[in-house]
Amino acid sequence: MGKTLFEKIWESHIVVEKQNDPSLIYIDRHLVHEVTSPQAFEGLRMNNRKVRRPDLTIATMDHNVPTTDRSLPILDQTSSVQIQTLEKNCKEFGIKLFDINSPNQGIVHVIGPQLGITLPGTTIVCGDSHTSTHGAFGALALGIGTSDVEHVLASQTMWLEKPKPFEIRVEGKRKNPHAVTAKDIVLSIIKNIGTGGGTGTVIEYRGDGITDLSMEQRMTICNMSIEAGARAGLIAPDEKTFDYLRGREYTPKNYESLVDSWKDHLKTDGDAKFEKQFTLHIDDIAPQVSWGTNPGMTSDVTESIPSPDEFSKGDSNQKKGAEKALDYMGLEPGTAIEDIKIDRVFIGSCTNARLEDLIEASKVIKGQKISPNVQAMVVPGSQMVKKQAEEMGLDKIFIDANFEWREAGCSMCLGMNPDILSPGERCASTSNRNFEGRQGTGGRTHLVSPVMAAAAAIKGHFVDVRKMDLS
Amino acid sequence: MMKGNVIKYAQDNVDTDVIIPGQYLKVHDYAELATHAMEGLDPDFHSKVKEGDFILSGKNFGCGSSREHAPIALSHSGVKAVLALSFARIFYRNSVDGAFLLPIEIEQDAYDGISDGDEIAIDVSLNEIKNITKNQTYKMKPFSEIIGKIIAAGGLFKYKPDQD
């Protein structure tokens, strides 16, 4: 029987294989940031261990860095300590660090691919759940906790239960690909399979709806695999993948011979079997807006907020969850989504802060001003994205529309730095999680695409962006 | 055998952002971290939780972020095990690898049968949960072999793989 892409990568990385139990897997790349690494380095130090492969370990600071003027000192003492600790640890253990002043600094899942560190067929880990992003390149990319970070630092391996392969086919052609984006595709998938729909699996996204996407759009899809509970998400590499990585700063010297081997090997065989299957037809899908407190609580922009009964379809915990979510979000069933007024707009995060995201959002706002009741910010995913956007004049478009134009980092996606919502504030956010308190205590998050976020900034409420001229 | 009282959250999708909100991920003192455990969902948690308590909840417990601060905050609050219908995998592994608490997968009978405040006893060797308050017994799903060994060893770094 043939093998899936996931099984091929898995088998080529086994150090110790166990049936029905975790196997020991070799890790090709380890990405490190300031929040989930301090205790891991401390553990190494306490046990007199070294980093086994500092050459395969790369660090940056993204989670709690300020996004304001970087020449000023960091006011938050605890953030400052965490940032200094990473600098110290990288120096002591010989790890390459892109620090706060580096032109390569940025969200770890944005810079990995941008620098050519992310490669097809590799295993990649990082102490961050959105590591699944790198799966867009046909890598098996897993989010891990700090104990496993320490284990990988020390041994370049980790114990992992073999996930089951899950095929998600995305079929068809979007009528308006500027208005209905990769974000809308992945939110539609999660809305259908649920936040636990991918638990214990590695999703392989397939079909013409996926191969049509650019690399940056594919990253948006794979990024949110974790929101469906999956261990990872991946997409078989193709010419777009190989072109994207060609000639980047850390792309290997023997790249073309690697590409030749990837072309033959890195695809799911015709007769391979998946343990789970789901198909989404995208010809007629609408722009998506989340209304609840997990990414599965999402509707078409043209719909109204469902009642907990409608949403739960008879499941009592789902019903309770929806009631609690609506209470937290301050929303009533039956309210049209287009009538929801917003206070804040956040265009950023490892889901949607790449150059294409900023280009698409800028088309919506060019020559316009944001609603006087709205405060809006753009946080580019990396300093490189920021520079590229500035070279194209995008910063000027955003600033002229009264957006704030910030330095790169995770920012308001997770509320670790000063960029947070106040209690009760409602935000159209291009990030990945709408959990209670995620963007600040009492903050209300609606997950949307960059285009929807930009349109909501202008109008002050959600709109059917298919009706706008986005060409 | 572990014995303790249950704090029940009768819901699915208890996420890591409510277990320990992002603003506390800069806190390195575990005792301080514990004072903010479950703050996003139950601000009274810290005042009511006792050493040896268990948390009981529905599906997909610990979904979201990979922050190990989540099981650490619960563990340092005194929580010895979380019983849930299912777990998000990163939370599950973090709990085991750092030997913070036991993630115990239960069936619907235990979820329905155990109420908030019930006293229960968990016997991992028998894969059994006894509800002392209600005099009922339920099965827990057994740990896989290596997970069981990591737990028995006291965490990932104390576990010595077989030389076979």
Give structural notes.
The complex is a heterodimer of chains A (471) and B (164). Chain A has 471 residues and is of the alpha/beta class. Chain A is 32% helix and 16% strand. In chain A, the strands form five sheets. Chain A has a five-stranded parallel sheet. A five-stranded parallel sheet of chain A has the order 17-16-15-18-19. In chain A, β1 (14-16) and β2 (23-26) form a beta hairpin. In chain A, α2 packs across α5 (146-155), α6 runs parallel beside α8 (215-223) and α13 (355-365) packs parallel to α16 (450-459). Chain A is globular, with a radius of gyration of 21 Å. Chain B has 164 residues and is α/β, with parallel strands linked by helices. Chain B has one domain (2-163): Alpha-Beta Barrel (Aconitase, domain 4), CATH 3.20.19. Helix content of chain B is 27%, strand content 20%. Chain B has seven helices and seven strands; from the N terminus they run βαααβαβαβαβββα. A seven-stranded mixed sheet of chain B has the order 4-3-2-1-5-6-7. In chain B, a hairpin with a 4-residue loop joins β5 (119-123) and β6 (128-131). The longest helix of chain B has 9 residues, at 89-97. The termini of chain B are far apart. The model of chain B has no long low-confidence stretch (mean pLDDT 96). The chains are: A alpha/beta (471), B alpha/beta (164). Chains A and B meet through α2, α3, α5 and α12 of A and α5 and α7 of B.
